[in-house]
Amino acid sequence: MPATTFKIESFTFNPFSENTYVLYDDTKECVVIDPGCSNKTEQQELQDFIKTNELKVVRLLNTHCHIDHVLGNKFVADTYGVPLEIHEDDLPVLRSVPTYSVAYGFPQYQEILPEKFLKEGEDVAFGNTRLQVLLTPGHAPGHVVFYHAESQNVVGGDVLFQRSIGRTDLPGGDYDTLIQSIKTKLFILPDEVTVHPGHGPSTTIGEEKASNPFLR
Fold it and tell me: Which SUPFAM superfamilies does the record cross-reference, listed alphabetically (predicted)?
């Protein structure tokens, strides 16, 4: 069964403690999601893992385009020759990053724009793996999550956290939209599904249904 070979590796990068993910299977093809590596040391950590495991990076994906999730986009794209893929609704969010990157302490940020757009209903395929793309706006207008049904894992970006939810006070954010996204896109998934968020520890759909104070 392909499910037994599907693996997720996480890295915590940059001053925002952002979670970067590498997903791969027994074909050794992999995708990098939300590379937040902000300096040479973090870039090397990501590169070392990919090299040690003899992985081939075939796709570069962003759940959304706030600065902490895109700092390593250009590094990954240049190093592995892969185009950036985001949801089109988050393009304004990505384009705004250079306007505030210096103020946030990242004068070295280098912009890279997407060559492909992710769409809900169109799976992301690599190796023997298919990820479902679910559009989950609210934290950012073009926020998506990536769901692997066979292994019951979802890479959730900044939508749902352990006992919390994504902030909605940034441009393009909307609280009611976020709650609706969680209830209609995530809470319909099986309780056993593990959520790998953009910050903090993983959780499960069932745990958050039962205990998340924002979703009572």
Answer: Metallo-hydrolase/oxidoreductase (SSF56281)
Express each pLDDT in 57-87 by its tens digit.
999 999 999 999 999 999 999 999 999 999 9
Region of 90 on the Ramachandran plot (φ > 0 left; ψ -120 to 50 alpha; else beta): alpha
- Domain with 202 in it: 2-215
Domain count, the chain: 1
CATH number of the domain at 166, please.
3.60.15.10
How does pLDDT run across 116-169, given as a tens digit for each residue? 999 999 999 999 999 999 999 999 999 999 999 999 999 999 999 999 999 999
pTM listed for this prediction: 0.97
Rounded CA-CA distance 126/189 in Å is: 22
